[in-house]
Amino acid sequence: VFDISKVRDVSPEARAAEHWQTYVSRLEAQPGIIVAQQRARGGHFYISGLRDPQAADPQALLSGTGVDPARVHSQWQFYQSLDPKFVLKRLVASLAPPKSVRLMTIQDRIVAVGEAPAAWINRARVASQQLSADGLSLDISELRESTPQELTHLRDAIQAVDIFFDSGKAVPGPEQLPVLDKLANQLKELAKDAREAGVTAQFMLTGHSDATGRETAKVSISAARAETVRALLKKRGVDPELLLVRGAGTFEPAEAEDSRTGSSANRRVSVTVNFH
């Protein structure tokens, strides 16, 4: 009895079939490639399946397998793999992160670290929600909001401005009108520059009062001062949608004061700039 179980078929057809299976195994090991069907017939090889555009080129994978490329007939349908490496590449292409942001894969998660404008973070947040629907995770918890450098100088100049009021008055005196004119121009300029930088500037107008009078009256007049400044800035062309108001009463004084005499420095409206 002859045992031929360990005898290999070394015919050209057998070697070609072996080489073909080597190639198929190589394809099946590639992320982003799904082999659906494959067969050999009449000395030719046929294969079809799904391929992510970022996956390895099936034609290039023939190299070194011994399979004649002229005998291979392939049909690959487009699909998007959920492999984190491919998702990461698509995110980089679609989100175009600034240089201050790094996207990387940690196990099965994609993590964004660094700082970016609020508008870009909002786009990343939308992408994160879309990915979660596919069972993937884009972690943006390590992102910090940044202010474009070209906006900081004007922001600081605006926040250094105060509109002052006489005691008991909710309307600024005529000497404050040039200050309001300049402030309105600065706010409009910053709003425009912010839009061009991909963010939205909002301006919080906070009214303040001195320590004279009843506490309820102090809060009321501080809020009235903020509303007055908002109306005056709107009249000067500032978008009212960007102007928020609040009354702080005596709780955020510019300087300490004697409650009997009050302080003109505390009868004011201040401006705080926020970017979104």
CATH homologous superfamily of the largest domain, by name? Answer: OmpA-like domain
End-to-end Cα distance, whole Å, is 85 Å
- Please tell me what the overall shape is: rod-shaped
Enumerate the strands of the largest sheet in spatial order, edge to edge or round the barrel: 7-10-8-9
CA-atom Rg in angstroms: 34 Å
Q: Under the CATH scheme, which class of the largest domain?
A: Alpha Beta
Number of strands: 10
Architecture blueprint of SSEs:
Elements: H1 12-28, E1 33-41, E2 44-51, E3 72-78, H2 84-95, E4 101-106, E5 109-116, H3 118-133, E6 137-145, H4 149-159, E7 162-164, H5 177-196, E8 201-207, H6 215-235, E9 243-247, E10 268-275
Parallel strand pairs: 2-3, 5-6, 8-9
Antiparallel strand pairs: 1-2, 4-5, 7-10, 8-10
Describe this structure in words.
There is one protein chain. With 276 residues, the protein is an alpha/beta fold. The chain folds into 3 domains: 12-78, 2-Layer Sandwich (GMP Synthetase, Chain A, domain 3); 84-145, Histidine-containing Protein, Chain: A (2-Layer Sandwich); 149-275, 2-Layer Sandwich (60s Ribosomal Protein L30, Chain: A). Helix content is 35%, strand content 25%. It has helices spanning 12-28, 84-95, 118-133, 149-159, 177-196, 215-235; strands at residues 33-41, 44-51, 72-78, 101-106, 109-116, 137-145, 162-164, 201-207, 243-247, 268-275. The strands form 3 sheets. A 4-stranded mixed sheet has the order 7-10-8-9. A 3-stranded mixed sheet has the order 1-2-3, covered by helices on one side. Strands 4-5-6 form a 3-stranded mixed sheet, with helices on one face. It is rod-shaped and about 105 Å long. 23% of the residues are buried.
